[in-house]
Amino acid sequence: MKKMIDKPVAERMAFWIPADHYQPVQGQQVLVDEKKDDGLANVSCTLPSSHAYELTLEGKHVAHLNSQRCTDGILLLEHPSGSWELHIIECKRTVNRNKWRKTKLQFEASIQRAMAVATGVGIFPAKIKLYTAVRNEEIRDEIMASPVLSKITPADRDAFTPEELEKYHFFDWFDPTLELWVNDNIPHEIIPLDDQGVGNVQIQFI
Asked: For the segment 172-189, what is each residue's pLDDT rounded down to a tens digit?
């Protein structure tokens, strides 16, 4: 019997994964959209390769996971070397301290869901990148408006205790990487949206 891993990816996906959970990318353009008012957006993504799948997992129940949260876009990209990457996009009208905490939980849950699909067909993404597409970023103003928060320096953050890291979790909005899931340094990129919720991003291999 031929091993699953020896079969083409398209064949593995078609056999093991429900058809409404993914779609092959046609060309190198993908539109990630959010139709709910809180994140109403259209993000045009230009990919570095057409060897990619869009995982359509929002609203799909995963019985073995407690969290059913999901981001607006999950892209599975094949690198020319044959390795795979996950690129995960969440759209928000506004990001403040509380919404940023919820967004990070969405990122973690989406990584888990995407990994469940990918590893189920013998794909083991080596790298992950996260994107937040946002119209209104309020975290900076919230910090500057606080006499306490506005005095916290990068050196102070480096000395944070675990309790302080949790309390002041929102400072990582300004960092190029996030500590999420089982990784200490997942790249994170902010995609600015215009007043109509339209934006674009040139996705590169990590």
From this structure: 999 999 999 888 899 999
Q: What 8-state DSSP symbol labels residue 139? A: H
Give the separation between CA 47 and CA 50, rounded to whole angstroms.
7
Q: 31 — phi, psi (to 5°)? A: -105, 120
Q: Give the pLDDT confidence score for residue 109 in this predicted structure.
A: 95
Question: Could you tell me the maximum CA-CA distance found in the chain, to the nearest angstrom?
Answer: 68
Alpha carbons 154 and 25: distance in angstroms, whole number? 41
The pTM of the full predicted model, rounded to 2 decimals, is 0.94
Residue type, 13: M
Compute the distance between CA of residue 95 and CA of residue 129 in angstroms, rounded to an integer: 19
Burial 144-178 (b: 16+ CB within 10 A, else e): eeeeeeeeeeeeeeeeeeeeeeeebebbbbeeeeb
